[in-house]
Amino acid sequence: MNEGKPADANPKHYESIVKEPDVKFSAALSMAHTIKDSVKTRQIAILAAAGVNATSLKAVKKQLTKAGAVVEIIAPRQEHCFRCRCSACIKGDLF
Q: Hey, is 7 helix, strand or coil?
C-alpha cells in the first residue's frame, strides 16, 4: 500500500514532522486542580433517542441544572432539531 504517497516519490518527503510542544505544562489548562466533588460549571450532554422517558429526562436535566451544570440534550432523530434546545423538546413533546 502506498499510504497516499505517489509511487515515484521519496518517502522521506512524506514523513511526519516531530516537533516539541510549545507548552510543556500549563496549570491553567490542567484538570489536576479542579473541583472534583461538584458538577458546577460542567458541560453535560444527555443522549436521548426515541422512546426515552420524558419525565425522567426532564428530572435529570432539572437536577443537574439546579446543581450548576450546563446541560444539553442531544438526539439523533428529531423533526426539526439535532441539538435540542427547543421548548417542545424540553417539555418532552418530541420524545
A: coil
Radius of gyration (C-alpha) of the chain in whole angstroms: 23
Helix (H, G, I), strand (E, B) or coil at 85: coil
Report the C-alpha gap between 11 and 56 in whole angstroms: 57
pLDDT for position 55: 82
Report how far residue 65's alpha carbon sits from residue 85's, in angstroms, rounded to the nearest whole number.
Answer: 14
Cell numbers found for residue 23: 507548552
Averaged over 11-16, what is the pLDDT? 85
Place of cell 450532554: 45
The one-letter amino acid code at 15 reads E
Provide the β-strand partners of residue 72: 45
